[in-house]
Every structure is written in structure tokens, then in C-alpha cells.
């Protein structure tokens, strides 16, 4: 699957402060500062959540989101725009299931990087009862 949000686009994003703020909500300088800390937190997270097996860190198949900066852009774009996993996967050249998996991996890393919990909106209402609890003023659906 070909990625739409490829390295040329990332380079353009890193050169244009206005575009960077529009797409991910941070200036280029803020992004670069956050990227260094994010990279360190990602390594810590991987070491802590690693399953016991024979391979060494860094061995095996390489990830589909290659660099820590790409991973940071992936999760910041997700949080800023909240695209579907299909769209997120298309932008980064992933299947939707891998996009979902990466979001679940990278959210705790970003939270660790920021040093606080990210406040995310509740996304799904699964029943009429949940709907009425969320919107008490509504009497009929």
C-alpha cells in the first residue's frame, strides 16, 4: 500500500511553520523539541512492554512507521484530525488494522512524553441508554 503522507510531505511540513500548525497543531520548533523526548519515551515504552522472546531489540522486521518523528506525526495527526483508521492507514501506507494498532501503541507513549493523561472525547455510544445518559435533555430518538 502506497503512503500519501510520505517523506517529501514530511520534509515540506518541517519547512512550513503555518502548515505544521494547521496539520498537527504545533509549530516546527515545538514539534522538533517534542520529537526528541518522544523518541526517548518510545524506547522506554518498548523495553517495558516487550514480550519475552529470543530476538534482540531492533532485530526482526522493521516497523511500517520508520522513524520516531514519523510516529509522532502519526499520533499527533490522529489526535488533531481524528481520521478513520482507513484514512490514517492510507495516509501512512498501512492497513486499517495496523493503523489501529499503532494508535493504541503510540497514545501511551505520547502521554508518557507529555507527562500527563491526554483528554480524549468519548467516541462511541453503544446503546440507547448510553445515549440518554450522555444527552439527558433528549427525550426521544
Structural features, described:
The protein has 141 residues and is an all-alpha fold. The chain has one domain (7-49, 63-119). The chain has helices spanning 7-15, 17-24, 28-48, 68-81, 85-92, 96-114, 128-134. It is globular and about 55 Å long.
What spatial form do the alpha-carbon principal axes imply?
Answer: globular
SSE order: HHHHHHH
Number of DSSP strands? 0
Per DSSP, what share of the residues sits in E-state strands of 2 or more residues? under 5%
Structural classification:
mainly alpha
- The domain tally reads 1
List the uncertain runs. Answer: none
Distance between the termini: 41 Å
**Number of H/I helices:** 7
* Helicity range: 55-70%
**What average pLDDT do the residues reach?**
83
Query: Taking Cα atoms only, what radius of gyration do you get, to the nearest Å?
Result: 18 Å
Main beta-sheet strand count, sense and barrel state? none
Amino acid at each position: 500500500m502506497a503512503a500519501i503522507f510520505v517523506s517529501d510531505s514530511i520534509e515540506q511540513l518541517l519547512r512550513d511553520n503555518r502548515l505544521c500548525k494547521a496539520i498537527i497543531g504545533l509549530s516546527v520548533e515545538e514539534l522538533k523539541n517534542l520529537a526528541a523526548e518522544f523518541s526517548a519515551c518510545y524506547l522506554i515504552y518498548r523495553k517495558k512492554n516487550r514480550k519475552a522472546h529470543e530476538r534482540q531489540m531492533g532485530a526482526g522486521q522493521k516497523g511500517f512507521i520508520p522513524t520516531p518523528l514519523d510516529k509522532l506525526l502519526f499520533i499527533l495527526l490522529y489526535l488533531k484530525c481524528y481520521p478513520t483508521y482507513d484514512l490514517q492507514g492510507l495516509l501512512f501506507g498501512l492497513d486499517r488494522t495496523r493503523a489501529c494498532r499503532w494508535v493504541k501503541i503510540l497514545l501511551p507513549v505520547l502521554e508518557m512524553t507529555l507527562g500527563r493523561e491526554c483528554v480524549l472525547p468519548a467516541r462511541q455510544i453503544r446503546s440507547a441508554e448510553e445515549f440518554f445518559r450522555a444527552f439527558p435533555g433528549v427525550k426521544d430518538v
